[in-house]
Amino acid sequence: MPYTNVAFNPQFWKTLVQKTKFSTEDIPDLTGKVAIVTGANSGLGYATTVALASHGAHVFLACRSKDKALEAIERAKVEIRGSSRSASFPTSTTTTTSTTTSSAPSTPTGKAPTAAAIAAAKYLKDKDGNAVEPKLEFLQLDLNDMNSCSRAAKEFLEKGLALHILINNGGIMTSPFALSADGIEQQFAVNHMGHFVFTMGLLDKIIASQPSRIVMLSSIGHEHTPKHGIDFQTLNDRSASNPASRYGRSKLANILFGKALARRLAKEKVWVNMPHPGFVYTELARNNKDSMGVVAAGVYDLAGRMCASKPEVGCLNQLWLATSEEVVERDLRGLYFVPVGNELRPSSYALDEELQEKLWTFSEQLMHEKVKEA
């Protein structure tokens, strides 16, 4: 039965009421660090990009649509640059006969600066203390096409840069049945195979750039899968699954891949982990009406508007894994986390080492079959 792992797990329910231990203010100085965020033009990916860039990282937005990515870059620059200037305004003071109190820096409009603004004012400076532009670049990546993923990795490598942070954030959810450009069930193809090819193409660079991090965004939805978790013989059998279970299968694959990769990197200073972002209201649910029906999609949309976190909050778990020193200090590897920074036991399928290795072998063989010069 789906979700029994969390339904009867007191540790999970405890995380829903505890105080968050991490915010963007806790992100360290990332000056000199290079990061790639997939699916970075909206939602969690965009919020993650803004947070990393405002702390000094050189961030590549790996996206399918160039127009959307460039628009996101300009939007992020305005958000960071404009508000960082406001954050540099002097602190306002209120004097009474006995005490002087300080308030947060204010903008010309009277609004307090955002966390990204304050971070940018602190970290985005040259050696003379002058404000500098956030470093944001577009990288063409279509996760629906394995050859595009391979080309994207090669294009990045040609730049001659290090790679300290890879956040595999992009994906789709509960979309109607379709096949990818490579003839693979689309949710599995986009959420897992695209990231597998992209990550493997960058892996040598990530190792050479250590200490480094790889974050594989998963979901609590990994607990809702077809029978056997992943049946490689029926991946393209529409009758063997539904939109929700196909999504769950792809998110299970993220954990299985992450665990298998972490095992292979156990002796390296490369930390691989898999977060669940929580219930976040983003464009990811845009296919719900087609796959779930109007009524169910309406209920989900209403719940999202009323109860879900905003992307700026939902991205904190992956930012914690990508930047927190606690990950290194505690040597956290190949683990599954719920918000924020709370390790949780994933499903029994996710813990199956034999299934992890089966997925690795299947993915590697498929990559060599479909990708030219893989």
From TrEMBL:
InterPro entries (alphabetical): NAD(P)-bd_dom_sf (IPR036291), SDR_fam (IPR002347)
Pfam families named in the record: adh_short
Region annotated Disordered, chain positions: 84-111
GO MF term (any one): oxidoreductase activity
Keywords, in A-Z order: NADP, Oxidoreductase
UniProt xrefs under Gene3D superfamilies: NAD(P)-binding Rossmann-like Domain
Family: Belongs to the short-chain dehydrogenases/reductases (SDR) family.
Protein name, as recorded: NAD(P)-binding protein
Organism classification: Eukaryota, Fungi, Fungi incertae sedis, Mucoromycota, Mortierellomycotina
